[in-house]
Write a structure and sequence with these properties.
Length: 355
């Protein structure tokens, strides 16, 4: 899963990227404008450590989310369609909004204004989608007049795109466009940016910690939204956990916010976690809510999906309460599920397969 960090220049995108991925300062490594930098953040699900206590695996692997720091994309007056490629490949977006005051870093248009910045970002995403739609519609309008074998298909596509265009114009976004499954497939290749799930990070200064205003000023949003003091988080991340604790306490923080950002991203993308827990490896996996047992198997290995026989499933709560596979089985807590079983968050799954 790859998430693009976007926002206006100097909003703290790279700082947040560092706070999430643990990248340490290396001035030479800063991405040039328009280029993307990729890093990984691990989802430190507390259930993993608890299950590890029971299973004592040789190896423990947390679920990972890839982040891309997209420098320079929104720096220009008009968004550049070419540099939007990396953005289109992303599964989701984190929009970084500046709320911190820093006399050394001049704010966009001379004033810190998170809501204005959000509107600018959303308007840029809108323009990029509109541009794609209009170019394709223009081409289709010409080619649909020619009697070719593709003519019927093009007519259908044109009608769909015209509907998208009207929806985008009316709502500023394609996120709530109602489409059939077939239409959804047809639209997939366009990778519309306003359809991407997103979370908002309001980048606050140290003094704003605990203040509700920086998030409240955005009004009601459908995106998961949270405030993070990115520069501080990055600094604290560089400390040993024992060194870090008194600072966090002073600031009234229970822990670093990176995990909360990951939780917001997972909520925006509607992802759940399942576990595979063998002696060799304990591993947490992310999967879209609603995915089936055979899809979960395929996520682990294509062979497991191909040769799927059944899934042995125990909820993490039972797994922890009864102390692992054996005792769950003897207490009747293990379920045998077929291909179509809808995986639940926290399921510990063992796939029986034969290839
Ligand atoms: N005071 C303060 N400065 C910050 C914060 N986040 C970023 N900065 C500073 O703002 C500048 C721009 O940050 P950067 O992460 O490079 O922004 P980007 O252009 O969005 O990648 C840097 O000098 C950061 O040190 C913050 O939360 N508080
Ligand atoms: Mg940057």
């Amino acid at each position: 899963m790859r998430i693009a960090i976007i926002g206006l220049p100097q909003s703290g995108k790279t700082t947040l990227f560092d706070a999430l991925t643990g990248r340490q300062d290396d001035p030479g490594a800063y991405a040039a404008p328009g280029s993307a930098q990729v890093g990984v953040a691990h989802v430190l699900d507390p259930r993993v450590a608890a299950i590890a206590e029971i299973v004592k695996p040789k190896k423990t692997t947390y679920a990972a989310i890839e982040f891309v720091d997209l420098a320079g994309l929104f720096a220009t007056e008009r968004p550049d369609p070419d540099s939007a490629g990396a953005l289109r490949d992303a599964d989701g977006l984190v929009k970084v909004l500046r709320a911190f005051e820093n006399p050394g870093v001049p704010p966009h248009k001379g004033a810190v204004d998170a809501l204005r910045d959000l509107q600018e970002i959303d308007s840029d995403l809108f323009i990029l989608d509109l541009d794609i739609l209009e170019r394709r519609i223009e081409r289709l309008r010409l080619s649909v007049k020619k009697p070719t074998p593709r003519q019927e298909g093009e007519k259908v596509e044109l009608a769909l795109l015209e509907r998208c265009h009207a929806h985008l114009q009316a709502h500023g976004s394609l996120s709530r466009l109602a489409v059939t499954e077939e239409e959804e497939k047809a639209l997939k290749c366009f990778c519309f940016l306003t359809q991407k799930p997103s979370a908002i990070v309001v980048n606050i200064g140290e003094k704003q910690i605990g203040d509700a205003a920086p998030v409240a000023c955005l009004g009601q949003r459908h995106e998961p939204t949270l405030a993070v003091a990115a520069a501080l988080e990055k600094e604290l991340l560089a400390l040993e956990p024992a060194e870090r604790a008194p600072f966090l306490q002073d600031l009234g923080l229970a822990e670093l916010s990176a995990q909360k950002v990951l939780a917001a991203v997972l909520s925006a993308l509607d992802q759940i976690t399942f576990f595979t827990a063998g002696e060799k490896e304990l591993r947490a996996w992310l999967i879209p809510r609603g995915a089936t047992a055979v899809e979960a198997a395929g996520c682990v290995h294509t062979d497991l999906a191909r040769g799927f026989i059944r899934a042995e499933v125990i909820s993490a709560a039972d797994f922890l309460q009864f102390g692992g596979w054996k005792d769950c089985r003897s207490h009747g807590k293990e379920r045998l599920e077929g291909k179509d079983y809808v995986v639940q968050d926290g399921d510990v799954i063992n796939i029986r397969f034969s290839v």
